[in-house]
Write a structure and sequence with these properties.
Elements (H helix, E strand, L loop, with lengths): L1 H30 L5 E9 L4 E11 L2 E4 L4 E7 L4 E8 L5 E5 L2 H7 L4 E8 L8 E8 L1 E10 L2 E11 L5 E3 L6 E6 L2 E4 L12 E5 L12 E10 L3 E9 L25 H32 L2
Parallel strand pairs: 1-16
Antiparallel strand pairs: 1-2, 2-3, 2-6, 4-5, 4-7, 7-8, 9-10, 10-11, 10-14, 12-13, 12-15, 15-16
């Protein structure tokens, strides 16, 4: 009898210890903070000041997914000894696009080299993470002119030297685009580079459709450069072919919209629909007659 009681107590003790270990393991799994991948990109459009794009992702199985509603803090300098710029929560794409306030740009512009930091700190369930990007100060100019009836686009790029003076940059590869409805149309080759004066020029195509006034939006972009980040210059010019609304859409053709469909097609469709409705009414009427006759 004592052996049986001893065996039961031993089994019960082992079971409780096993459950305690499993519970402890589950608690560790639940409380372990999620590791994230944090990236930071620098953008500047028309010399209007820095735009910082932070992206937050985490690894699930073998792929990365974006995290929404994560608070990202932005600093000028590192996160320990720096100027706090502000914070922003990530959107449904895991991105937080932060525009540096005008009041802080005057302080930042006093240096030739910028160090920006993005940090995720003290977020519930997320392990702290920070990343930075170092950018050299730059400036761009975009202009248009005609020479011997040839339309040209002129792009010029400067950067700051060690003394803070703006000097031209050679051998950059800006890409010239035209903004279209569903994306960007490249109008320059991959061999378009800046010369010793920081200038790059292209001949503007003369066969592009614009809006009703012939206006086109031109965009020149240096994408994710190691020293300068993403630099964009944008402008509008009326060098396109004016878009003329054709009256052909108002004609009653087979391919016209419903309101302008041919008369014979409208008649045939309505006749078919009328025939179907009449048939249904006839069937219902006869079913009703059969029902009433069966109950007389």
């Amino acid at each position: 009898m004592k052996k049986i009681i001893y065996s039961l107590v031993l089994i019960l003790s082992i079971s409780l210890c096993s459950e305690g270990i499993l519970i402890g393991q589950d608690d560790t799994t639940v409380n372990e903070p999620v590791k994230i991948r944090l990236s930071l990109l620098y953008q500047n459009i028309n010399n209007t000041g820095p735009r910082l794009l932070a992206t937050v992702k985490t690894k699930v199985d073998r792929s990365y997914i974006t995290l929404e509603d994560v608070n990202v803090k932005f600093y000028f300098g590192d996160s320990d000894e720096s100027l706090y710029l502000g914070s922003l929560k990530t959107n449904d794409s895991g991105e937080a696009l932060f525009l540096v306030p005008e009041t802080l740009r005057k302080i930042i512009d006093t240096t030739a080299v910028y160090l920006y930091t993005a940090a995720v700190q003290n977020e519930p369930g997320i392990k702290d993470k920070e990343t930075d990007v170092e950018i050299i100060k730059s400036k761009v100019d975009l202009s248009f002119y005609e020479e011997d009836s040839i339309k040209k686009v002129r792009y010029q790029f400067w950067t700051a030297d060690s003394l803070g003076n703006m000097i031209p940059v050679e051998d950059l590869n800006p890409i010239f685009y035209i903004e279209r409805l569903f994306g960007l149309l490249a109008v320059s080759g991959e061999f378009a580079t800046t010369d010793e004066e920081g200038v790059c020029e292209i001949v503007f195509p003369d066969n592009l459709l614009g809006d009703s006034n012939g206006k086109l939006k031109v965009l020149v972009k240096i994408d994710d450069h190691d020293d300068y980040g993403t630099i964009i210059a944008k402008a509008q010019i009326d060098w396109g072919i004016p878009l003329v609304q054709s009256d052909q859409s108002l004609e009653r053709e087979l391919w016209s919209s419903g309101a302008n469909a041919p008369i014979y097609l409208v008649f045939i469709v309505n006749a078919l629909l009328g025939g179907i409705v009449f048939t249904l009414i006839y069937i219902i009427f006869n079913l009703y007659r059969i029902y009433t006759l069966s109950h007389e």
